[in-house]
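Training component of the fellowship. As part of building independent skills, the fellow (R.M.) carried out the full modelling exercise for a liganded target. The chosen ligand was guanosine-5'-diphosphate. The inputs are recorded below so that the supervisory panel can assess the work.
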Amino acid sequence: MAKPIVAVVGRPNVGKSTFFNKIAGKRISIVEDKPGVTRDRIYADVEWLNNKFTLIDTGGIEPNNNDIILSQMKRQAEIAMDTADVIVFMLDGKSGLTTTDEEIAGILRRTKKPIVLVVNKVDSNKLSEHFYDFYTLGMGEPIPISSVNGLNLGDLLDEIVARFPEDTDEGYDEDVIKVAVIGKPNVGKSSLINTLLGENRVIVSDIAGTTRDAIDTPFEFNDDKYVFIDTAGIRRKSRVNENVEKYSVLRSLTAIERSDVCLILIDANEGVTEQDKRIAGYAHEAGRASIIIVNKWDLIEKDNNTYTEYTKNIRNQLSFMKYAPILFISSKTKQRVNKVLEYVKYVANQHSMRISTGALNDLISEAVLLNQPPSDKGKRLKIYYGTQVSVKPPRFVLFVNDVELAHFSYIRYIENQIRQNYNYEGTPIILESREKK
Ligand code: GDP
Ligand code: GDP
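Fellow's submitted model of the complex:
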């Protein structure tokens, strides 16, 4: 199920970054230890009272005069309106309501998305007289908070999660494979989609009754049903926004959230960039199946080593997703484009594959014999048994005598054993250890 996305919008200096860091710092669960995942906090995974959501930071660009502030705000608000499920509109309780705030409110009023009005910098329980001005925006009850003191943040989080969409169900049948084509501007996303849809074995279909008809493209291939997620967004191309790197990353987030399989496009000419890493990192953290697609392969002059060197380089740069197959294609000459959907089908199967508890425990017993579990102060890790608790992505729980002893490296070893026996190509695997007395 897709995690809701929450965006914070507001003019410079109201305290958006402070708020973001406060929330992220406390409850962040970004996998910071994994090499290769950029730490740049463009988004944070937040969990509040069993509600998981992604908080995105739309700010961060320093405008230096009023015109720029406004156009900047406009973009920020539009991104939020496009991608977020809930928008937090932040105001400054110290300076009170300004005309820029009113203009932002004007833009935000066009959205049907729920908006939470929040007044920051209310550092004590006493409300200033400014506070009541914020009611005149007509956007509901403003919530006073202090990002610095952490005052009222809990109330705000309650209000945010209360506004999550009831049903994040996509409306697609279980057997429809949802594919997100992601990557930076000009990498060839729309070319690839067009080339794929133009293949004669692909039947563009209507899947009736979905709420997403306008933005997705459903199709069939070899009797299997697929849908390209958010194709309208890719084709629409708001050039202005896309050029700001951060915004194009944010745009990918919604598509990733809604997908089963991500096609991560890399421009063969440029190799893996920071922006590519961010996008891939999100797909990984979101637990989606991924295929790394190096597009524009026709532009590369090749010798005997090109392929090997290129592959090695990608593995280094995207070291956190060694499980993802790499395809070198050209959307222009159609080289290997016919492989893409075969791979999609394959990794989608791997993503939803189950191992029986019996088979898993045979594997664990053997792994333990081959390589003794770690011990500390005379106490040795015991794995009583393991079981696969879910799919998409495959998640396993190992019941152990002491979680402190279940070191990362040993868990990684078990993961490798699982992969050696069952492959799980294209998908991350989650392994948790739990104590059983
Ligand atoms: P942004 O431009 O909206 O991201 O704003 P920042 O987070 O950079 O904050 C702008 C200024 O407001 C900084 O000097 C912060 O320390 C200050 N600030 C942020 N939140 C609070 C708050 O809750 N109380 C007070 N007194 N100052 C705050
Ligand atoms: P998007 O912004 O990611 O949707 O990228 P587009 O599909 O619009 O492609 C950007 C540019 O790259 C266009 O000029 C395409 O013609 C070109 N392009 C896309 N794929 C290929 C490819 O495989 N080889 C070459 N040489 N050019 C390509």
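The panel noted the following from the submitted structure. The domain at 5-163 is CATH 3.40.50.300 (Rossmann fold). The pocket of guanosine-5'-diphosphate (ligand 1) is lined by residues 10, 12-18, 59, 120-121, 123, 146-148 (CB under 6 Å).
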